[in-house]
Amino acid sequence: MRNHPWQGAMKPFRVLGNTWFVGLAQASTHIIDTGAGLIMLDSGYQESLYYVLYAMNECGLDIHDLKYIIHSHGHIDHAAATKALVELTGAETFMGEGDREIVNGTRPELNWADDYDMKFNGIFEPDHLLKDGDRITLGNVVIDCVATPGHTAGTFSFFWDIEEEGKIYRAGTMGGAGLNSMQSAYIRKHGLEKENWRGAFRKSIARCREEKVDVFIGNHTGHCQTVERCERLFAGDKYAFVDPEAWGKFLDQCERNINKLEMTDPL
User: Fold this and answer.
1) Global model pTM greater than 0.85
2) Which residue, 123, 125, 184, 212, could crosslink 105 as a Cys pair with Cβ 3.0–4.6 Å?
């Protein structure tokens, strides 16, 4: 399925206010309209770029208004289309400092292309390396950047405000929750025994619990039941993605997952 992105095609939609979903079932891509240009959260697979461009057009979002591309982390399903987008638009790129070597070609074995039996030809040097506590500002949007390593060394989570009908909602996305890169076989394969990614992930879960999130934006559709919620949205539920309890429930599941991994797959 990863090699055939059209199989995961979804109808694009406005999540709420200034935030749009223009990705696919396999990997999410979101657009924030700041009033002074567009911010993209994760560019997705390079094979999916044509669909992201189509989805943006369907939503009335001009790709030439793209100013910033912000990455949750450096894996192929979140960053592979970035090089082409930069060549097309001149957008500036943001990446967690710890993932710079994944996307600039220094540590390509960590981008998951080989593991997915795919190619990654999108090597790029990020314009801005994020550090914990950084803020990204464009137009009327301020994005708070929180380092949440574990899935990768440079995973970041992002938080920003969405206005709808005069009310402000806090949106948030967890930068990486998959345990695939924390499995013992993966750690041994890539010589990462000195990395305490499992411990870092636990701390990241605790850090995310400090954030108030009304609108949980998943960087994979399964994180926040994107498919089910967009069906409700299309059926007329304008606030299908407003759910202040969803964030905590997701973090609870992350904690259960890491507990299970440590019991069944000791290092």
Assistant:
1) yes
2) 123
